[in-house]
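for the writeup, i need someone to sanity check this before i put it in the appendix. the sequnce is what the collaborator sent (i think, or maybe the updated version? ugh). structure was predicted straight from it, no edits. if anything looks off just tell me and ill rerun, i have time this weekend
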Amino acid sequence: MLGGTSLFGGRGMLFGTLIGALIVGVFRNGLTLMGVSSVYQILITGILVILAVATDQLSRRRG
């Protein structure tokens, strides 16, 4: 889940999706300002999305 919208459907709102996109955008901008190579920016952003999906799966199993 990124910004309140599950990748597997069933819940979430447009506002949450916009917040999630904003978080990723700010994160990428911060990496750019720190001088991180674009290849590593993509890698780090991918890891962020994978962590969000893993967190969503864990919360679904517990709830």
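DSSP finds two helices and no strands in the chain. The first helix runs from residue 14 to 33.
thx in advance!!
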